[in-house]
Amino acid sequence: MVGAVRQAGYDTGSASLRLKVSGLYCAECASIIEKALKGSPGVLDARFNVATEEVKVDYLPSAVSMEELTRAIEGAGPYRASPSAPASEAGMDRESDQQEQEYRGLMRKWWFGAAVAVPTMFLSYPFLFPVLRDVLVRGSTELRIVWTLMGLASLAVLGYSGNQFFTGMWQGLKHRSANMHTLIAVGTGVAWLCSTIALLFPQIFPSAEFVDVYYDVTVVVISLVVLGLALEVKAKGRTSEAIKKLIGLQPKTARVIRDGREVDIPVEEMLVGDVVLVRPGEKIPVDGVVLEGQSSVDESMITGESMPESKGAGDEVIGATMNTTGSFKFRATRVGKDTALANIVRMVQDAQGSKVPIQRIVDVVSGYFTPAVMILAVLGFVVWYVFGPPPHLAFALIVAVTTLIIACPCALGMATPMSLTTGVGLGAQNGILIRSGEALQTASRLQALVLDKTGTITKGKPELTNVVAEVGFEEEKILRMAAAVERNSEHPLASAILEGAKARGLDLPEIANFGAIPGHGVEAEVEGSRVLLGNAKLMADKAIPLGRLEVESQRLADDGKTPMFVAIDGKAAGIIAVADTVKEDSKTAIATLKALGLEVVMLTGDNRRTAEAIARQVGIDRVLAEVLPQDKAHNIQKLQLEGKKVGMVGDGINDAPALAQSDIGFAIGTGTDVAIEAADVTLISGSLRGVEMAIDISKATMSNVYQNLVGAFIYNGLGIPVALGLLYPFTGILLSPLLAALAMSFSSVTVISNANRLKRWKAKEARS
Amino acid sequence: MTADKLVVILAGLATIVGIAWFFWGPRKGGLRAAVSSSGYQEAMVLVKGGYTPDVIVVQHGKPVRLNFRREESAACSEMVVFGDFGKSATLPEGEIVPIEFLPEKAGEYEFTCQMGMFRGKLIVE
Q1: Which of residues 325-364 of A touch B (CB under 8 A)?
Q2: pLDDT averaged per 10 residues in sequence order, chain A, 768 residues
Q3: What residues of chain A lie within 8 A of the CB of B89, using their CB?
Q4: What is the per-residue pLDDT across A272-294, written as a single tens digit (0 to 9) for each?
Q5: DSSP β-ladder status, A261-266 and A253-258
Q6: Using an 8 Å Cβ cutoff, are B2 and B8 in contact?
Q7: Chain A residue with Cα closest to B100
Q8: Alpha-carbon distance A767 to A761, whole Å?
């Protein structure tokens, strides 16, 4: 049917959406749901994906609404349907609900463990307390009763507070792998088992001094590690805050005009081409182009640019940005998963899940880590039992258990992912999209930075810069006449002159007998005068003497500007110069980049004179001019051959090969187009300051990664030998398993807290 | 040297060898992904204390779809990362999350959780 309608030349205006279906009970469910949907009016097609339990529906939004689709599915069986989006706010909410639940569960376990731990601690060291000392004498029946009670209580702690360690160990063992759970489970389990053997069969020990219990170790270690896990869950939630904030930016409803009426609809139901009305103070729901109205829009949440952008007809607006005072109508160009915001969220999630190259070393280490610790613990036990001081068994046991407990594979494993997640999120909040961990690491080590001139350093479109008047003429008159003549021209320089005249508030007179002289200029009659606008060749052809204007034009050209002569009634009247002007913040950004120790190079296809004029203005020393577009990549390669890590900043379309050739490509984004393939880093705001921030964030993140890694290695590298008792022969120091548990819990919390510290990073000017 | 010490030494050595063999010893061959009607080489992977199966064999040049289902709440496994293919996914508990990619070159590729504690291997032939 659709085919027929389309063949007839009409657009069916179809849309598609995905619905998540739950309650599937049979193999035929998929076809039942598909049939139910296809049988509904307005549905063109429905395909069910069993793997994701989602059905994709192509439908006519004018004929059927999302609710009707949902009803169709739910009417076909015991199903529940809901719109699905991979990174929806609801999904995020559920994730944080899960986190909250896990946190509460762990805290309950901690309180139970702590409640048992306090009396256990007192009763384990009766000789320290006056009354207990007299009642609980070694070998007495009272002591055996207390021990039995402690044994039962600690078994309860193992079973309730510590159950995840044992199930975790068991799940791992089934895959022949070991993890943190294995270490804690074996450590506490061994301590409990040995204590219980000592309690039940004291006669198997050679002398009474060997008979001792370590129930306090079991209880305290479990409690502390569980508390550490709880704090970890809490801190991890904070690490992924950035992405939650991004998703939270999406407004839920939009006011669109359908059938001539204003209706509020959920953004999920919006279609490309919808006309949307935005009132003062409202959020813009999706990406689009302004049709009518005027306003300024705060885009800081997406671009990181703090100044509001003024918007009028024809301007692009970005979804999730905030309208300020005016109101306007716009046509939606991108909706759903295609919006800039959705792309940003997707890119950030991908980047957060990627790996920093340095992580590969860590991966190799952590693959061997846990079994190696277990082997060391056994070795420690044997050495202390054979060579250690009496009581052999007690020392050997304490050493083995302490070694198992203090080793913290988690600190090692979390060191880079936590910092990466925070760093990438930080970038996104400042309008900088870093594609991967690899990009982040490279960006932190850049030595040279190549900047494309047009559109990167400069605004990328010519602007009126100078009006020079010959004696006897006024600047305003020259500009007014020239702008009038150019009104009908399509030359890019013409719009610069028109814009310039508009900016000065000049009204343009009517013209007659317009003519273009290709390659030379234009002419027309304005208010009875014959006006010529063009280059020196045009003036020479018409035999108009230029006089001192010739010197002026030379001077302007030396500054990188394009001069055009204006002649009125056969007399040279003046010069109008246009140029691609430098962006306001380019100069400061380049100075900061140089201060970061980067060699800054300008690359352009323009002639050397223009290029050097711009370079002088912004303070760049090295200029590669007159480079053909296809040779840009080659020039990057030449710089790389000098042994440098080279970054390239360009617009992502013309510069794609150069961006790909460079060690790291920064694409200057243009508003909504953020998914630039060739770029490792996308700068949404289009300002060069983004490059500086991106490099700064990368450096801050990488140093955070190194801090975490060095910390984790030092912690394990020092902790394990001390736990094994290497210090004992020299200083008599032997670590208690209780201290080991404390250290282990706090080492992983420290890693996450350090990563969260990154969030306090501020842009340079905000700092000073 | 007393008898008990000798016993401890021998038992200790045996345990060490046992641990090394158990965790690092050779493993059985993996599961071969089945080719589905859609042309993907598909396999289900259960995430619970590790990946089951943890070795998956696929052919190069054909698209692969691995459907991960996480059945535990420990935060460690909430993300699976295929570093060599630049793919990763968050795995909400109890949901099936597909990961799709095209292995172009033969070789052995690791997939891990974000912290590298859970490991699986993808063998591309």
Answers
A1: 349-350, 352-355, 359-360, 362-363
A2: 47 66 61 77 73 70 79 74 60 71 91 93 83 78 89 94 88 78 89 88 70 85 88 77 81 86 86 89 90 88 79 87 89 87 82 77 79 94 90 87 86 81 88 88 92 83 85 86 80 80 84 81 86 86 85 84 87 87 86 91 84 88 85 89 90 78 84 66 84 91 91 90 90 85 83 85 60
A3: 353
A4: 888 999 988 888 999 999 999 88
A5: antiparallel
A6: no
A7: A51
A8: 9
Q: Using CB atoms, pick whichever of B88, B93, B114 lies closest to residue A350.
A: B88
Condensed to tens digits (0 to 9), the pLDDT of residues A723-747 reads 999 988 888 888 888 888 888 888 8
Written as six digits, the tokens of A18 are 């995905």
What single string gives the DSSP state of each residue in A216-259?
HHHHHHHHHHHHHHHHHHHHHHHHTHHHHHHHHTS-SEEEEEET
Contact between B86 and A417 using a beta-carbon 8 Å cutoff: no
Q: Is A140 helix (H, G, I), strand (E, B) or coil?
A: coil
A480-511 tens-digit pLDDT? 888 888 877 767 778 888 888 888 888 888 88
Instruction: Tell me which of B2, B6, B17, B23 to substitute to probe the interface with A (most A C-beta atoms closer than 10 Å).
Output: B23
Query: Which secondary-structure segment (H or E) carries B111?
Result: strand B107-113
Can you give the pTM of this predicted structure?
0.74
CA–CA separation, A421 and A483 (whole Å): 53
* B23, B92, B114 member nearest A178 (Cβ): B23
Q: Residue A573 is which amino acid?
A: A
Q: How far apart are CA A279 and CA A265, in angstroms?
A: 15
Among the options A452, A580, A606, A680, which is catalytic?
A452
Q: From chain B, pick out residues whose CB is under 8 angstroms from the CB of A236.
A: 75
Whether A452 is catalytic is yes
User: CB–CB of A379 and B16 under 8 A?
Assistant: yes
Residue A275 in 3-state DSSP? strand
Per residue, the 3-state secondary structure of A701-739, as one string, reads HHHHHHHHHHHHHHHHHHHHHHHHCCCHHHHCCCCCHHH
Whether the predicted pLDDT of B38 surpasses 50: yes
pLDDT at A627: 84
Token reading at A400: 């083995």
Asked if A697 and A427 count as a contact pair (C-beta separation under 8 A), the reply is yes
β-bridge partners, B42: B34, B65
Q: Which token pair is B8?
A: 């401890």
**Chain-chain contact of A359 with B116 (C-beta, under 8 angstroms):** yes
Is the dihedral angle over the CA atoms A43, A346, A431, A678 positive or is it negative? negative
pLDDT of B40: 83
- Write out the two tokens for A549: 């204007």
**A391 in contact with B at a CB cutoff of 8 Å?**
no
Residue pLDDT, tens place only, A375-433: 999 999 999 999 988 788 888 988 999 999 888 777 777 778 888 888 988 888 888 88
Output the DSSP codes for A437-504: HHHHHHHTT--EEEEEIIIIIEEEEEEEEEEEE-TT--HHHHHHHHHHHHTT---HHHHHHHHHHHHT
Positive or negative CA dihedral for B81, B87, B93, B96?
A: negative
